[in-house]
Amino acid sequence: MTAKSAAAAARATVYGYPRQGQGRELKKAIEGYWKGRVDADALRATATELRRTNWRQLAEAGIHEVPTGDFSYYDHVLDTSVMVGAIPERHRAAVEADALDGYFAMARGTQDSAPLEMTKWFDTNYHYLVPELGPDTVFTADSTQQVTALGQALALGLTARPVLVGPVTYLLLAKPAPGVAADFDPLTLLDRLLPVYAQVLTDLRTAGAEWVQLDEPALVQDRTPAELNAAARAYRDLGGRTDRPKLLVASYFDRLGDALPVLAKAPVEGLALDFTEAAAANLDALAAVGGLPGKRLVAGVVNGRNIWVNDLEKSLATLGTLLGLADRVDVAASCSLLHVPLDATAERDIEPQILRWLAFARQKTAEIVTLAKGLGGGTDTIAAELAANRADLASRAGSALTHDPAVRARTAAVTATDGRRSQPYPERAAAQRAHLRLPLLPTTTIGSFPQTPELRTARADLRAGRIDSAGYEERIRAEIGDVISFQEKTGLDVLVHGEAERNDMVQYFAEQLTGYLATQHGWVQSYGTRYVRPPILAGDISRPEAMTVRWTTYAQSLTAKPVKGMLTGPVTMLAWSFVRDDQPLADTARQVALALRDEVNDLEAAGTSVIQVDEPALRETLPLRACDHPEYLAWATEAFRLTTAGVRPDTQIHTHMCYAEFGDIVQAIDDLDADVISLEAARSHMQVARELAGHGYPREAGPGVYDIHSPRVPGADEAAALLRRGLEAIPAERLWVNPDCGLKTRAWPETRTSLENLVTAARTVRTELSAS
Fold first, then answer.
1. Active-site residue 403, yes or no?
2. Catalytic residue among 497, 521, 654, 709
3. Nearest to 178 by CA among 135, 130, 132, 139
4. What is the spatial distance between Cα 46 and Cα 23, in angstroms, rounded to a whole number?
5. What is the mean pLDDT of each run of 10 residues along the chain (772 residues)?
């Protein structure tokens, strides 16, 4: 096909779409099912209608080929485990008794069975459920969910393309099951898994699929020759079968690198590449392999992870370069639109001109359709859209919101000394022990306590004008009092005020900093039914006034025990926001760090002796390629130290991280120079404690003994067993006892019992240590 005919054939498509619905109908239906208010049939009906609504919206917008299989009740990787029959033995009976309840048991656990481990999906804030595999794993095909969704889309008269997690990525994301040797490599199961994928592909072809997309984002990471050979073998096997649909192998989030020649040679009909995060690298690599003659190329030129309007002329130039490199060039977002909110037009509180800078899923869909039209018919066919786009880009570039001379001057004046504590850790530790007088194995929580329905109602009443600010603050004051009283009675050693006044650990601060925009309806799935509204980092950042001092000081007035000041760190403020794309992330991080430094110093001046600056996103923001790690980790750790280094030696600085692979960044954790770090460890059975010990981590640490992302209540014996395992790696004088994460999403009954058991476990192990 010539370049001209390839352009004329251009079609618009997407890899996935937000699942929740305009009003988060899916979240409400699932949580209603868990509480017994919604039955299974009603839940399935809600899900079916949401899928149909998504497909209709896409088709009406001009998308030529809609995705199926991207919808999930909880997580698409968990759905893949169900599809291939990889059900953990502890959940098999539950799945056989009731498939839906068993599915949720794998995701959330039960009182008797722990859930699957959860961690971050590459470098995003989406969490997936980690497959558990071993040498005895038997795979069996169950394509029911995928075939059903395809049939529903085809019944609407749509062209549909099922989207599946690819077999290589699935195995590379998996971990050895409990009881399996830690050095077991799930990729050794590839030859056992491929026939199952082949059966699913056959089932989908029989059901009417012309194309099936197999997502292989793991191939954009550094891969060994053995792993690349496995990818080659997988697609030689699947591509060589005759009873299958056409195969589109998709990658995203970074450059494909050494995997591109492997996939280009594979007997598959198409590749999908990211031309936003890695446009130049993927373009060069495509040219180096001689393009994709006879194949379909789906070009992800619209950023599926950020919310700024696309530069249409720049994207058209990229698409024009791709013509002639493939038999057919189609237009798409760089990845699933799962990672952005649904519709920017729902926002009423953002200035209309600024709103035009933003593109959520529905607006990105329109951009994709416009680009496909322009590629196929020429720029004259989209002249009006191009003119409007140029005006929007110019408006943003020239806005006073994006440039504050005072902020830029302060950032430019930062020196290396500003990021160093005044004394080394051993001297600080001695000063803190003398000042705080904590027991061995001190107990604490991570920060938040349950956000009760009453708190949410009070917040809604304040927004709606049903109560005034005085009434709302009285409710917050009472909640803080209850939280402090409970912690004292339970026997926790370092308390928190519970964060009753905070809607979200990033949004709360963003709403008080200049340069940020907040949304009312910009919900994005983090995991399961947990949705967040990432704020939009639109301009230069500063802190007009103190943000947390008032409520922290009030909580401290209610107790003689230390109360932690709680802040969200600069990297997490970036990672869990939609960041500006018009300056380096390092520059933005320094601006946020300086604003938070002012808050840390004000907390200390108000008498706060323990200050926690959470950085759960430090690992998730790590670039996917190792060669990019040093630059990122240098500015990320510098930003944390810039936030915290201005305090006295006897002020104890904590940080917190959760649900990531910490072994990759142990040196960076060390480089933060925090006095105490708390980390997720319950689901991973204290793996992080061993990783810290292996590194020789010299400071205090609290690997979690209570998994807060499950409703199950761990007994005191279970928590004590985890604590003893932690002591095998970390000396008692440096070990803290805490949950994995904040308690915001939990209910009070399970929180009370779990924390009481945690304190009991700490006391039990203290007694054992004193007797030994």
1. no
2. 709
3. 132
4. 12
5. 63 97 96 97 98 97 97 98 97 96 96 91 94 97 98 98 98 96 97 98 98 98 97 98 97 96 97 92 94 97 97 97 94 98 95 95 98 96 98 94 94 96 96 98 95 86 89 93 97 97 91 94 95 95 97 98 98 95 95 98 98 92 93 97 98 88 86 95 83 93 88 92 94 95 92 96 96 86
